[in-house]
Every structure is written in structure tokens, then in C-alpha cells.
Amino acid sequence: MVSYSSVSASSRERAPGRNRVSPKNATGERALGGAAGDEQPWGARRQTVLAAARRERPFSDRGGSSNMSAPAEEFYSEERWENWLARLREADLDPDDENAARLLLNLQDDVAIAVAKILRAYEADELDDDGAIDELSTIHETVSTDPGMDDEEKAMLVGGVQMSLDPVFYAAQEYVVNGPAEEGSVEEYVTAALEAETEEDLDRAIGLVTIAGTRVIDGETFGLGVVESMEPGYVTEWVNGLHSLQEALADPEVIEEDGDE
């Protein structure tokens, strides 16, 4: 039986239920909601198109290094994040367009790759516990800042990426501090998280997704069907981030800035 008690107190303190679990767009509505009268809530549209983008673009097709690569001594830089945001500001981001979804997915995967590289450096004893936590915290802070998008829908789209990345960082930190969960599967933790979300216990939900993430870091895999079978919501967004982490751990190549993905 999956238990929230396995989530460390330090992770619960870091969990976005304390600050970012309810991201707001420029109008103050939750990013997953969508305007009144929408045929399909924004979150549902985003998940549908993201799933299609993943199926159409195998992870190995994302390309190798480019001029967006951070210097060798850095895992990720503020400049790199700003380069992505600049590209997004110039792009025509239609949530129903697979090309737009692919661009957002590349942004998300790119950050997940940085997290994967930190974890690999930690496992290779190139970083100690404090060094790994510091690197993760610095990058998380960088990618969690207000993207400064004047366009409300673009702000929501980037906010969705930021939300998906939260458990990637929390899981990595939990893994460094306490190692992977020894019991339960990714799907069990996700199912429990969905139940917690239904009960509006978002702190518990993100904690359970975090622990699922430690299982992913430890080598357990899950398929897209887990995400596609879920109703759009916070857990859906968080698990989408874990899928990016899973792929990054399997193939931590740098995303190309320019190219026809």
C-alpha cells in the first residue's frame, strides 16, 4: 500500500503546495482552467496535443548539441532559459497546433535533461549531496521565474511547462536526500496522487508524485498510456514532467535550438 509517510518532511516543505501548486495566469485564473465557454479546457487541449507531439517525435530525434548548449561547467544557465523564452515570445503558439506543442515539449525536455545530468554526476560522485541540491535548486529557481509574457495564452502555456517541471526537481532532491522509494510502483503512486487530487489534498498529491519520480530515477519506467488515460488536472501535468525526466535519464542529449523537430 502506497503511503505518504514515505515522503520526507524536507520534500513536503519544498513541495509546490506551499507556493506554486496553484499557478495563476494574468487574469488570476488557474492555468489548468480555461476561459468560460471554451469547448475544451486549456489543460485538456494541452495534454491532447502534447501526447500527439510525443508520439510523432521519438525522443532520439531531438538532436544533439547546439549553440543553446550551456558551457561545460554549467548544467543549465539563465541565458539558456531566456533563449527559449525569447523563441517562444516570437512563435505563434496555438495550443491546438502540434508544432507549438513540440516546441513547448522541447523546452520541458531540455530542463529535464539538465536534471538528469546532475543526477548522473551525483551518482558518479562528481557532486556530493549539497552540491547536487544546490545545482537543482539554482536551476529550479531559474525556470520558475515569471516568464514575462505579455500574451496571456503564452503565459499559460509556459506556466504549464513550469508546473510539469516542479516534480522533476522535487523528485531529484528527494532522491539525493533519501534515495528511491523501496515499495510501490510509479502507477500506484500516481493512482494515489489522483485520489488525493480528487480530495483536494494537493500537498499530498505532489508528495506522492515526487515519490513516483524517485522510482523513475531508480530505473522504473512507465508508458504514455498512464498520462493519456488520466483526466486533465494537476497530477496529469506533474506526471507529464516525470515522463520528460524518464526520457532524459534514458538519453540525456541536448535539445537543438534550431531544427525541424
Account of the 3D structure:
- There is one protein chain.
- This protein has 261 residues and is mainly α.
- The protein has one domain (4-17, 41-250).
- It is 59% helix and 0% strand.
- The chain is built from 10 helices and no strands.
- The chain has helices at residues 9-14, 42-56, 78-90, 98-123, 129-143, 152-178, 186-198, 202-217, 224-228, 234-250.
- The longest helix is centred in the middle third of the chain and has 27 residues, at 152-178.
- It is globular, with a radius of gyration of 17 Å.
- The N and C termini lie far apart (41 Å).
- The model is unreliable at 1-42, 58-72 and 255-261 (pLDDT under 50).
What brief labels describe this structure?
single chain; 261 residues; mainly alpha; 10 helices; 59% helix; disordered N terminus; disordered C terminus
Outline of the structure:
The protein has helices at 9-14, 42-56, 78-90, 98-123, 129-143, 152-178, 186-198, 202-217, 224-228, 234-250. With 261 residues, the chain is mainly α.
